[in-house]
Amino acid sequence: MSRRTMALLSQWTSRVFSVDMDGETVYFKIHDTQTGKGGKEVLRMFGNIQKGASCYSLLVSSGEKIHSARFHWKLKDKLSTALPPQCRFSPMCSFLPGVRDSLVHGYFLQAPSSDSSATTERLLRQWLRLDDPLLVCSYLHEENTPRWIQHLWNTEQNHGIVPSEAPESHPATLNLINSDVFYSFQAARDVLQKCADIIPEAASVLELLPCDGDMEARSKPDFPIIVLEGLDATGKTTLTESLRDALGATLLRSPPPCLSPWRARFDQEPPILRRAFYALGNYITAQQIYSQTSKTPVIIDRFWHSTAAYAIATAVNGPVCDLPAEGSELYRWPSDLLQPSVVFLLTLDPEERKRRLKDRGQGETKEEHELDLNQVFRLRVEEAYKRISGPTCISVDASSSAEQVLRQVLLLIKAKRYL
Ligand SMILES: Nc1nc2c(ncn2[C@@H]2O[C@H](COP(=O)(O)OP(=O)(O)OP(=O)(O)O)[C@@H](O)[C@H]2O)c(=O)[nH]1
Ligand SMILES: Nc1ncnc2c1ncn2[C@@H]1O[C@H](COP(=O)(O)OP(=O)(O)O)[C@@H](O)[C@H]1O
């Protein structure tokens, strides 16, 4: 048994568990076996479960962050292929309220029949024997009582479970720092250095990174640095190109073209690797900005706002109110990342945005597809954009014609004397 597993087991009775059940998150915790009462909340959670179904939970207990993230990332496919087709599984996690980096991820399984339950149990016992970094539990309902018992297979212990109130902040915020959002060049680079042996493309990306010394803050730029942000198809590419022409500016984008060969590869990886990749893209772009800003104004298509907003809005998978509160340190700008003169956030009515996306005819990223399917995710991204602290961020209604939007932004640039 790994040290990490032992550490998790030693905290077991203090942990809170959350299950995303049919779009709703239900929280429960361990209660003294003697007096633990199921309570209506737990019954409601388990009550949503088909009568007679057997329930199990899997939590990934690997200690090393990248290994744990990749194991959990692949576990979803393993469950999809190995479980009997009648079985359902949903995201689950466990955490110690208020304790940073205490979050572990997993899945909550439901086997509707005795056959599928027997198959599921065989599979889980096999995985435990393989010494996979897993904590496995089954859930038993004591007949004619509101009591549910959690049986922890790793130690053969039983615990009563009771409802738990939702934590003050979404559990994902406990592990965001330098796992989903990277607040320094070194933190992001460390992740790619650690995975270079398992992902060869990481070595190619590392070769393109600026040296440490180059990350030092530079003198005030001679020309304005203007970032365009916004969801896909809000008109960033169109506007950045017309701004470049109107201002005789240099146009850059993040991630920079030099990372294009490896982008799709990192988009397939779990958040810790993907977000580190995008964060490093911003630092490479920052170097390019420094080299240009003594010659011309610089326009950038996406920068830190996109990186942080998509990372936070993905990790915190509840309604917008679950996002970290405005002013949270989680929205801070990395102290070693160049700050632009101004950020323009293009906003657009969802229907108009969809129309433009269709007209453009380009494929959309998986994340953009998610944005369309999942309005709540889109609203989280849009709100996270606005909460990012650091440079001045001005929302611009991008619904008028391309020419009118250009005129509006040029007036704003001149009015703020960025030129
Ligand atoms: N550029 C960028 N994109 C990110 C980042 N994090 C996630 N993404 C995803 O990548 C998509 C943007 O892809 P890009 O190629 O930069 O932009 P695009 O496809 O040209 O779309 P637009 O820039 O909106 O025209 C976003 O819509 C997100 O789904 C990030 O840090 N930077
Ligand atoms: N202000 C605008 N009004 C109408 N259509 C626009 C406007 N800006 C861009 N478009 C069109 O909408 C689509 C998406 O624009 P694009 O610049 O690629 O957005 P983004 O870079 O934000 O994804 C393109 O077909 C573009 O021609």
TrEMBL record:
Gene3D superfamilies: P-loop containing nucleotide triphosphate hydrolases
Catalysed transformations (reactions): CMP + ATP = CDP + ADP; dCMP + ATP = dCDP + ADP
Subcellular location: Mitochondrion
Molecular function as annotated in GO: ATP binding; dTMP kinase activity; nucleoside diphosphate kinase activity
Thymidylate kinase-like domain boundaries: 228-408
Entry keyword annotation includes Transferase: yes
GO biological process, one term: dUDP biosynthetic process
Top EC category: transferase
Record-linked Pfam families: Thymidylate_kin
EC number per UniProt: 2.7.4.14
InterPro entries to which the protein is assigned, alphabetical: P-loop_NTPase, Thymidylate_kin-like_dom
Keywords linked to the UniProt accession: ATP-binding, Coiled coil, Kinase, Mitochondrion, Nucleotide-binding, Pyrimidine biosynthesis, Transferase, Transit peptide
Origin superkingdom: Eukaryota
GO cellular component terms attached to this protein's record: mitochondrion
Family: Belongs to the thymidylate kinase family.
PANTHER family, per the entry: THYMIDYLATE KINASE, UMP-CMP KINASE 2, MITOCHONDRIAL
Protein name (record): UMP-CMP kinase 2, mitochondrial
Organism annotation: Hippocampus comes
